Amino acid sequence: MARFVRQTRRTAGQDPGALVHVGDVRQEATCLTLFRYDAASVDETHPDLACALPRDTAPGVLWLNVDGVHDAAVVEQIGRMGDIHPLLLEDIMHTLQRPKLEDYDSLLFASLRMLQYHEERREIEDEQVSLVLSPSWVISFQENPGDVFDPIRERIRDGRGRIRRAGADFLFYSLIDSIVDNYFVVLEHVGDWVEEVYERVTRSPSQSDLDEIRLLQRELLYMRKSIWPLREVLSRLQHGDSRLLAPETLPYVRDAYDHTVQIIDTVETFREMLSSVMDVYLSSLSNRMNQVMKMLTIITTIFMPLSFVAGLYGMNFAWMPGLRSRVGYFAVLGVMALMALGMLYYFRRRRWL
Amino acid sequence: MARFVRQTRRTAGQDPGALVHVGDVRQEATCLTLFRYDAASVDETHPDLACALPRDTAPGVLWLNVDGVHDAAVVEQIGRMGDIHPLLLEDIMHTLQRPKLEDYDSLLFASLRMLQYHEERREIEDEQVSLVLSPSWVISFQENPGDVFDPIRERIRDGRGRIRRAGADFLFYSLIDSIVDNYFVVLEHVGDWVEEVYERVTRSPSQSDLDEIRLLQRELLYMRKSIWPLREVLSRLQHGDSRLLAPETLPYVRDAYDHTVQIIDTVETFREMLSSVMDVYLSSLSNRMNQVMKMLTIITTIFMPLSFVAGLYGMNFAWMPGLRSRVGYFAVLGVMALMALGMLYYFRRRRWL
Amino acid sequence: MARFVRQTRRTAGQDPGALVHVGDVRQEATCLTLFRYDAASVDETHPDLACALPRDTAPGVLWLNVDGVHDAAVVEQIGRMGDIHPLLLEDIMHTLQRPKLEDYDSLLFASLRMLQYHEERREIEDEQVSLVLSPSWVISFQENPGDVFDPIRERIRDGRGRIRRAGADFLFYSLIDSIVDNYFVVLEHVGDWVEEVYERVTRSPSQSDLDEIRLLQRELLYMRKSIWPLREVLSRLQHGDSRLLAPETLPYVRDAYDHTVQIIDTVETFREMLSSVMDVYLSSLSNRMNQVMKMLTIITTIFMPLSFVAGLYGMNFAWMPGLRSRVGYFAVLGVMALMALGMLYYFRRRRWL
Amino acid sequence: MARFVRQTRRTAGQDPGALVHVGDVRQEATCLTLFRYDAASVDETHPDLACALPRDTAPGVLWLNVDGVHDAAVVEQIGRMGDIHPLLLEDIMHTLQRPKLEDYDSLLFASLRMLQYHEERREIEDEQVSLVLSPSWVISFQENPGDVFDPIRERIRDGRGRIRRAGADFLFYSLIDSIVDNYFVVLEHVGDWVEEVYERVTRSPSQSDLDEIRLLQRELLYMRKSIWPLREVLSRLQHGDSRLLAPETLPYVRDAYDHTVQIIDTVETFREMLSSVMDVYLSSLSNRMNQVMKMLTIITTIFMPLSFVAGLYGMNFAWMPGLRSRVGYFAVLGVMALMALGMLYYFRRRRWL
Amino acid sequence: MARFVRQTRRTAGQDPGALVHVGDVRQEATCLTLFRYDAASVDETHPDLACALPRDTAPGVLWLNVDGVHDAAVVEQIGRMGDIHPLLLEDIMHTLQRPKLEDYDSLLFASLRMLQYHEERREIEDEQVSLVLSPSWVISFQENPGDVFDPIRERIRDGRGRIRRAGADFLFYSLIDSIVDNYFVVLEHVGDWVEEVYERVTRSPSQSDLDEIRLLQRELLYMRKSIWPLREVLSRLQHGDSRLLAPETLPYVRDAYDHTVQIIDTVETFREMLSSVMDVYLSSLSNRMNQVMKMLTIITTIFMPLSFVAGLYGMNFAWMPGLRSRVGYFAVLGVMALMALGMLYYFRRRRWL
Known about the structure:
Chain A has 353 residues and is of the alpha+beta class. Chain A contains eight helices and seven strands; from the N terminus they run αβββααββββααααα. At the A-B interface, helix 4, helix 5 and helix 7 of A face helix 1, helix 6, helix 7 and helix 8 of B.
């Protein structure tokens, strides 16, 4: 449950723009990776902090990736190099932000949530990725090493696709797009999981299935909370008229926007399926309870009259007809059998059996 | 359940615009059909891929129908002939798209879901149909052979109605309209089915009815997910000012739009009826359970006191009045009968019987 | 249930604009009634089809009422006389349309649903009424003879009110208004019915009440489906700037619009009341069940211990204290009575009795 | 329930604008009160109908209050004097209107619902108040004598506050404001009532509480239906640019608008509290039922095995070990006590006791 | 419950703009604190009422904080000094306002709700804070001493951050921001509390947990009612073009707006979690009830047939086979044991045990 509660800030009373890291505590050193490429060449380095963003006016696109945002000094220095507003730096370090887009004329800032599915632990991990776009560079801030950008790195290195020929805005789009695409991967796993739970519940529901349904519901709720603002971000990117986005890039942004709409659709479908699985679970439970009650009623209804008859002939009256007869016992047994059969027939006719 | 889960993409990390088929795997060769017609003549051929779209400037309308979108080479070549944007080709091959409309000035692109009802299997099949409209031609991409366009083909061949006299935009509209119309056919079958389940549940509800209700609910949910974006498509066609649509065609588009609104209405009505069938089911179940409980209570309430009286006279006290009397037994039997009758009278007065 | 399912079309694949009657099959001949009036005079005839709409340029207003829309030849000829677009004629003959308004510049087309309450059958009948307004005439198409327009006919004949002095647009409004007004009449009956069911359920709920509640819910759902689009029609009439509506007529249209809003309000109120009646029903059922369970528990709790004591003294041990005592039996009876009284006191204290 | 049903009209088929009173039937004579005031003087009379609105051009504000709208002749004559549109007069006499605002350029018409709480009967009474504003006068129509305007009359007589110095529009605002303010008074009583029911349900819920909750829910539903359109009225007054409202009056209108928003808020809060009271009621009921079931189960589970053992030793076999032993009876009693204690221990461990 | 009901006004019939205190009754004297600062210096005093707002034209920013708004004379005098509209003064003294923003050109007025969490009492206290911004000063009105502004006071005294260098509008923003930030603090405590209840309910649910869930639901409902209008206030501040807000301040306002959105998100998450905790509670209750019923059924089903057999052999027939046999008793016991075992096996197979 903890993951869903932690979305709060511990910085009340801080000066706005003060750089305080909010999120899981970390100790690792920040790691910088710099790509510099144009249509003809590509260059990949791990620069020092001091020259993270080279100020030369060489053409081409710069992409600086920052792994680790817990060190205020590092973030501040990069911010100073890139002329990033203190409030944006504050957002970068508060890693529990709601996805959003900020347009500072000379800069475009996007904060997103990157989801990753861990197969073995059956867990969705999420971290905040902040992207800053200027006319000539993109800076991406991540909380942890390990991301979904490897295909983009490959494409830059190989020069496949449009990316090497296009500008920084296309890189900015590509990073967002690969985050969006990864939601599909996560959803595929969640979909398999939902189907698995469905199969299990249909066959034989158990208490643990209920917990699993609730866990899935929470995960989907969480995804929904990440993807809805992401949709807004892309919608504003698509309609907003930031002068940093080239017109050729807009159809791609629209495409990514369509994907977020489809993700939302899928998340909603899964939520509806889960609530239908829940229904199946509950109705199978109540079905079972009904059978328990029927069992109780049938047993009671058959044996109470029989026991009564037995009790009747167990009374100690001196004068009771049939007690001395040789066939009395068997006659009573026969009557009892008839009563039981009659009851059973009645139950069968009323479809209780 | 599988159909509802599969709405995901397996292409995360791909270059945007890369042509990868997403959907059920297929092996059949792609089949092309070309209509070329004007008011006076009609010509129907199965062209080679190389000359699928003849580049001559002869007047008249061209309609190229493509059955099978799993072969990237074919789609790409057609795309090159028709000057279709790579992102659109990607959408054509990803056959699990949400219906949408894209306006690329010189081209109009629509992606729809075509439903077909299979009577014997009681199943709704759906496939994606992508339509591309240029000033002089329409290309339609389908996943499988077999579609709902035969009446249009007949009308083109016979020269009935407006279609031969109108332009490519009217053909474009007609294809969409026949897909929309077919939703009515599917809904009619679904409506009959809903009514059948209703009749059955009202007469004698069973567990299998519940499964059927849930299946119908899922089918309607799925239809709703297909038709809502279709409504948006037609709404945008109707209001948008694509210069590819002639003003004479707009009333027809508005008509098709009205039909989607009516389909949505009907789907919602069916959903409400299903949830009312569900209510009938549940209330009849709980009604039955209540009768079971009443039965149990009545039996218990009648026989417990009687058995107690019998048990009383079964005690082995040496001195008990009446035991030796000749009429004791019958007196007790009489008292018991009176008790039972009193109980029955009480139950009848409280309307439990 | 059938009424709610039938809202589908059997014309998929038809040429748009093809005239095919959709609705209940009928055989009666179409009946035409023509009013021609101005402030000074009124003339009422049953014209032949050939001269249904006289083409002379005499001043005054023409109102042609058509009873029966199942005969395509008749509808088509009238359509040709009035220059009505084929798509509108199609809408007139498809009698299961959603209410709508179409503005064809020279013509205004409205399709409405007219409700009538049949007291003796306790049934709401509905039929489709299509109205076409041109600058000088109104044509009204109905499915059946018998309508809610008699007060308007009376006013035209008598020259009461504004109608004889106003133009065709005021007649058009008056026809719509009298359809809207009739919803109030139907609602009044439905309201009485709801109240009656409420009274009955409060006094003594039965299974048949449940069916009646469900029937009423369906009727209200149906009314809601008719009135919402009607509200849209009037809203568009009021705001739209059709040049066929004189400015003096607009306040009247706004008035009719207000009435539809009030009808919607009332329908929603009735729906809420019905669901509250449903609640009363369900809670009284569960209340009764609770009383059944309490009865069961009380009986069991009193007689089980008593029977146990009786069973104790029914054991055949040779040595049991008190069996031979003269007062043993009575002592045990006394103990039993005390036990029963103690139980009853306990139940009373816990408020179970 | 009747109050909620009666919102229908009995005038279907009437000529629009015909003056027919709709509402509770009344016989009292209409009573007119006329205030004429300016900053310097105030004059209060009960004029004849003939000179209700003096036509002189003396400066100052005229306020004509009309108690009773059931007499068509009176309403019509006043309407003629004030140049009020027939449709507005119709609205004034139909006392079951939805609150609304009509702007007829030279006149502003508002129809509101005035609520009054009757402490002793615990009932909310409502009546319709119609206000007409012209540049120099206000006419207020009420159904009954007795209203919430006395503080305004006092302020006019005493010359306290702004009212004597301001124009007719401020009077118009003040009348609306005092109606809005009175909703707070009603809500205060309803709030006390809700709290009282809450206390009672928490202590010991009974069937009558349920009825009271439902009654309160209906009252709040009714208030909500009155206040929502009132909010629209004030919103339109505030944003609309009627030239009858002086700019100085607008902040006051905005203030009244804020109050309606707060009333809506409070009504929604009360509704949520009521549904929470309902939850408490239901959960306490089901809690009680659960205790009944536990009681039943515990009694059955303890005494059934004991009775079985007693029955065992009540069998008439000739050879049964222990029957002849002197301690057999006591041994069996001991075993029984152990069984009972074991059961009780088991129940206590499972927290059923 | 009282806190949620009291949101009403006791001033119906008052002259609008009349200064009447609404809220908890208080007696303490009003306490004034005045900050006067610019980039270079800061001066903090507790001025007399007479010279609360010095009229000199010295540069710098004035911040007058007023603790206690129950004294109409004080509020009125301050209002006169600051030229505040009487309606605003009325709003300041009605301490149960819905948060709102009013733009009076020369003044900007904001009314907010400040929440504070009292750890030991586990209670959220709220009070109304009204802020008035003019070009050169800010006045803040609070109900009680003690607030969340201390960090701002510290920053003013120390000259840390932007605040001393910026204008009155930045102070206005900072006060709002610190109120918004404090919602996070409150939410953190509420989050911990929710998690604690969740843990407890998962382990062993009890009636008192239910009360706690309901209390939390009410608190969150209350927070939601405070934060939604606060969001509107900030949205209007951000988009509205009050000339009192410097352009440099707008990004900060946007930041605060984002925080309110995130607070709403978190409140909604907590509400969903609570309703999920409620589900866990209810399902564990019904699970327990099911086990009770199964227990009852198993006991009954096992012992009823056994008791019947015992009763059979307790009958006093003279001729019953086996009664005289030496092994009869043990044979019957064996049969009984077999019956019981068979039943247990049956229950185990049906997974009831």
